[in-house]
Amino acid sequence: MKHCWIVIFLILLAPAYAQKSDKVRQLEKQRKEALAEIETTSQLLNETKQTAKNSLNRLNLLSQQILSRKKVISILNQEIDAINGQMNKMNREITQLERELGNKRANYSKSAQSIYKRHSSQDKLLFILSADNFAQSLRRMRYLREYADWQKRQANDIIDKQKVINQKKVELEKTRSAKLTLLGTREDENKKLVSEESSQKEEIQQLNKKQKKLQAELRKKQRQAQALNRQIERQIAAEIARAEAEAKAAREKAERERRAREKAAPGSKSSSEPIREERVADTKGGYAMTKAEKQLSDNFANNRGRLPYPVTGSHTIVASFGEQQHQELKYVRTSNSGIDIQTSPGSDARAVFNGEVTRVFVVPGYNNSIIIRHGNYLTVYSNLSEVYVKAGDRVSTRQAIGRIFTDTEDGNTTILHFQLWKEKTKLNPAPWLD
Description:
It is a single chain. By secondary structure, this protein is of the alpha+beta class. It contains six helices and 15 strands. It has two domains: 4-209, no CATH class; 213-432, Glucose Permease (Domain IIA) (Distorted Sandwich), CATH 2.70.70. Helices cover 60% and strands 17% of the residues. The strands form three sheets. Strands 3, 6, 7, 8, 9, 10, 11, 12, 13, 14 and 15 form an eleven-stranded antiparallel β-sheet that branches. The chain has a two-stranded antiparallel sheet with strand order 1-2. A hairpin with a 2-residue loop joins strand 9 and strand 10 (377-387). The longest helix is centred in the middle third of the chain and has 76 residues, at 134-209. The radius of gyration is 38 Å and the shape is elongated. 24% of the residues are buried. Keywords: Coiled coil, Hydrolase, Signal. Residues 250-287 are annotated as: Disordered.
């Protein structure tokens, strides 16, 4: 049981410190992830030359970088607050320990002085011999021995408590140093943010000077996007019709076979067996799937949020799904059937899941496009300069399917347009990607 109070004290404190440390570590992890996003965007900005045509792309990258930078600063503030709380807690505990140490030292000093004044070896002997009987003498001997042991424990407790205080002061100093480092980092991030916001304002001024030209480019891009969607919708309708025709043919064949069996052996049990359909759609008017396609579709759905990004190399989303009002340019409003992912020149597009290539086609403004079917889900990869697969090929997750087009006349921008459909419905791909 020696020094047990210190062990118990440290055990009780451990969860509180572990919880604080876990919070700080989690915030540090988030900060590193946000800094990695900034690094990716910075790399893409460096690779994207500043030209008149691609200024909107650069503005989108700058806006993304500013958002990431603000996220980093916000996380830094949370880290500093967490460390301040930890330091306050440690200071309170050190104060309490020092107060307890002072009390112990005072009590020990009084005890030592009392022993020095009254309990010399002769006094102790007289104390024992002056007992009324032998039993009392034994009790007095035991008392003196236990008293001496208590004094030793008190001395050891004082030493141990001092060690605990010294250790906590070392931890506090380390925490204070970590806080100073974070404060310096936050100051640097704020300076970078001011610089980036200044660059953003310059980009906005340049774009406002050529508003008409930009709007004309956006209208042209919108017409190209509509043409792409019409091609995708026609392909989906054709596949649904073909699957339904195959299902109908299978039903008719099974019916003919049933009638033939019944005619050959009237009243036989086999004539009452149910007709098995080769393909079945999940929804009315949807894509009729085989059992293998149904399993593939279910596996695809179960991997929502865990699908790999459809590009290799560093990347960032520069255009989100759906109707978007540009935050900085009020006259710019876009509609996107998928997401646009900017990456480095020379990067490949890759399949996000196992599936079958159903079509490869060309649309002006989007170069080559590939559709991959995953049961009743489809993924679309557009703006490819080179295609590595053909219709009918089976592909696997992360397999390279084509080279993403790099527009040398548009500042070396390399952007993949990626779409996700279920049956005839467009879905936002972003929540599906990891």
